[in-house]
Amino acid sequence: MAARMKLSIVIPVLNEAAVIGGTLLSLASLRVRGHEVVVADGGSEDRTREIAAPLADRVVLAPRGRARQMNAGAAAARGDALLFLHADTRLPANADHLILDSLKKNSWGRFDVAIEGRSALLPVIAFLMNTRSRLTGIATGDQAIFVRREAYPGFPEIALMEDVAFSKAMKRRSPPACLREKAVTSGRRWDERGVLRTVCLMWRLRLEYFLGTAPDELARRYASKA
Q1: What digits encode the pLDDT tens for the residues 47-78?
Q2: Which three-class secondary structure state does DSSP give residue 122?
Q3: Distance (Å, rounded) from C-alpha 146 to C-alpha 123?
């Protein structure tokens, strides 16, 4: 079954000219194997679309917002399974085989994550993220969430925590496939803002979300701390 299924990799972007070329080049082998890459741009003002166009199967314009962009990319995709990838994240080798094999039993899943950056704390943070995800069944965007197309409910179009809301909805269908192979993501936001400061901020925002704070308010607080 895995050999017959086609994977669509959806990448939401906004002003990612510095990294999108390298990410798309890393996916070239998957395109050669018949899978597709869809870039969903939220109105970039740099060269993101120009760089992406020759390296992707499609570049679509979408209303700004990660959830809206991912849903627009999914609507344009033609694959049997969808993978949502951040612009600064690289997949493990043979990611397509790992994903499609896991979707024989699960409706959705994610990879473990490794974080590249300057701080020696980043491997610890990645370990805690992976452990928390495995215990709770909640995946984050850094972990390259994937899903069978027929099971895809769309991301809730909220300003923040769309990955958490998506995971909660999908858990009602099936537990996630938690792949131990690692997607490698950039630690740039931790390096820029400070590791402990960023971790504390994200923990606080996540707690407030579970306590009922509106995503728009959480997004405002997140932006104010950037």
Answers
A1: 999 999 999 999 999 999 999 999 999 999 99
A2: helix
A3: 23
8 Å CB contact between 49 and 77: no
Q: Calculate the dihedral angle through the C-alpha atoms of 46, 161, 217, 73, rounding to the nearest 10 degrees.
A: 40
Predicted TM-score (pTM) above 0.85:
yes
The tokens for 117 are: 């950056």
Residue found under tokens 């269908």: 173
Structural domains in the chain, CATH included, are 7-120+128-187 (3.90.550.10)
Question: To which residue do tokens 């990319």 refer?
Answer: 73
Whose structure tokens read 């969903």?
A: 40
Beta pairing, strands 7-13 & 81-84: parallel
Q: Where are the alpha helices (DSSP H) in the chain?
A: 20-26, 28-32, 48-52, 66-76, 95-102, 122-136, 162-171, 188-193, 195-210, 215-224
One-letter amino acid for residue 190 of the chain: W
CB 146 within 8 A of CB 109: yes
Compute the distance between CA of residue 171 and CA of residue 155 in angstroms, rounded to an integer: 14
Contact (CB, 8 A) for 78 and 90: no
